[in-house]
Specification:
With 113 residues, the protein is α/β, with parallel strands linked by helices. 17% of the residues lie in helices and 41% in strands. The protein has 2 helices and 8 strands; from the N terminus they run E-H-E-H-E-E-E-E-E-E. Strands 5-4-8-7-6 form a 5-stranded mixed sheet, covered by helices on one side. A 3-stranded parallel sheet has the order 1-2-3, with helices on one face.
Length: 113
């Protein structure tokens, strides 16, 4: 039995807008592997899910965990950070970055501090 075809995305070079067209070319039985920094891996994974990929079809490998994307629970703004306590650039609210990761947004939850 042949292994399932696999599309590998380098999260350091692939843009979120490229995920949909890449997935549209695939056929039944494919797998998606995303490799790169955590911030970009989560964003590409969220884009793949939004374009119809299933959890079982995706594997990820994170090579750097320093930078993260935060989703502000107050104004829904997405922004990059590397700290645990931040100020939202969208609404100015002081936020604590929770350990919870939203698969839909590809971001950590920023809750009011």
């Amino acid at each position: 039995m042949d292994p399932a075809p696999c599309l590998v995305l380098d999260a350091a070079t692939v843009r979120v807008d490229d995920v949909g067209p890449a997935l549209a070319r695939l056929t039944t039985g494919w797998r998606l592997r995303i490799v790169g920094p955590q911030r970009e891996v989560l964003l590409l994974r969220a884009a793949a899910l939004a374009h119809g990929a299933l959890d079982a079809e995706i594997t990820v490998e994170v090579v750097d965990r320093d930078a993260r994307t935060v989703f502000c629970a107050h104004c829904h703004h997405l922004f990059p950070t590397s700290g645990g306590s931040v100020r939202c650039p969208g609404c100015g609210l002081a936020l604590r970055v929770a350990d919870h990761v939203s698969r839909r947004h590809g971001a950590y939850l920023g809750e009011p501090a």
